[in-house]
């Protein structure tokens, strides 16, 4: 279980969360909805340990996480989190395969050959096999989105964070991603998805909305 309580976050004078609470269980697909600029990406970044918050308590399973503890947080991030970022954060001059393999470079627990096999299987499933050797700058927006999704799964993490993961997908790839998300849920992972895409509601266990600095169901 992943839990944040009494969460308060401000950027300079701008309040984002005030005594907010967020909870997600393993095996759940949880949506994070709400107006643009309301704090959805900020919450994902807090969960990933990329952003600090002013106060609050953060637990994963029985362990309390302290964002100011860089060593604890980077271990947690590397081992537990797959993050599909809104702008994909791919490196244009690297090939699709090199981008997908990036997380495995920072993780000594997975063999390169295992990661590569998983990359090829996922690429095959997402119709990306033909562009694995292409530089990212040469592929389409939808292909970039699928590459970013595959990269987040390469280490098989239990927590998947996704920021608007379906924006660039046509209906065929949208369906593929929905099936994949459902499968990840069946495997017992938790998916936390910030989105405006109401089509995803059909596979969600819970939809949170950010309203008045709180995160409510
Ligand atoms: N590093 C920062 N410094 C100052 N303000 C920030 C920073 N990052 C985000 N903000 C502001 O905080 C608010 C919440 O941003 P956030 O990106 O979390 O919203 P969002 O709900 O994900 O929006 P969108 O749906 O448009 O992606 C916005 O008003 C944004 O401008």
From TrEMBL:
- At the top level, the lineage of the source is Bacteria
Query: What SMART domains does the entry give?
Result: AAA
Q: Which InterPro entries match?
A: AAA+_ATPase, ABC_transporter-like_ATP-bd, ABC_transporter-like_CS, ABC_transpr_LolD-like, P-loop_NTPase
PROSITE patterns tied to this protein: ABC_TRANSPORTER_1, ABC_TRANSPORTER_2
- The ABC transporter domain covers 2-217
- Indicate the segments annotated as coiled coil, or none if absent: none
What name does UniProt use for this protein? ABC transporter ATP-binding protein
Transport is among the record's keywords = no
Lineage runs: Bacteria, Bacillati, Bacillota, Bacilli, Lactobacillales
What cellular component GO annotations does this protein have?
Answer: plasma membrane
This protein's record includes keyword Kinase = no
Q: Which Pfam families match?
A: ABC_tran (PF00005)
**GO molecular function, a single term:** ATP binding
Keywords, A to Z? ATP-binding, Nucleotide-binding
């Amino acid at each position: 279980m992943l839990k944040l309580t009494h969460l308060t976050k401000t950027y300079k004078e701008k309040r984002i969360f005030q005594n907010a609470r967020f909870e997600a269980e393993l095996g759940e697909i949880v949506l994070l909805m709400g107006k643009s600029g309301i704090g959805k990406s900020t919450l994902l970044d807090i969960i990933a340990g990329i952003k600090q918050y002013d106060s609050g308590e953060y637990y994963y399973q029985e362990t309390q996480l302290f964002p100011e503890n860089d060593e604890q947080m980077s271990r947690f991030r590397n081992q537990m989190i797959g993050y599909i970022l809104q702008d994909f954060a791919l490196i244009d001059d690297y090939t699709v395969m090199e981008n997908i393999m990036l997380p495995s470079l920072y993780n000594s627990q997975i063999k390169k050959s295992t990661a590569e096999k998983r990359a090829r299987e996922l690429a095959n499933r997402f119709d990306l096999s033909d562009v694995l050797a292409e530089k990212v700058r040469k592929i389409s927006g939808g292909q970039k989105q699928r590459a970013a999704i595959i990269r987040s799964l390469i280490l098989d993490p239990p927590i998947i964070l996704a920021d608007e993961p379906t924006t660039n997908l046509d209906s065929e790839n949208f369906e593929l991603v929905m099936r994949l998300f459902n499968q990840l849920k069946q495997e017992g992972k938790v998916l936390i998805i910030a989105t405006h895409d109401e089509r995803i509601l059909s596979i969600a266990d819970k939809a949170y909305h950010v309203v008045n600095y709180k995160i409510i169901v």
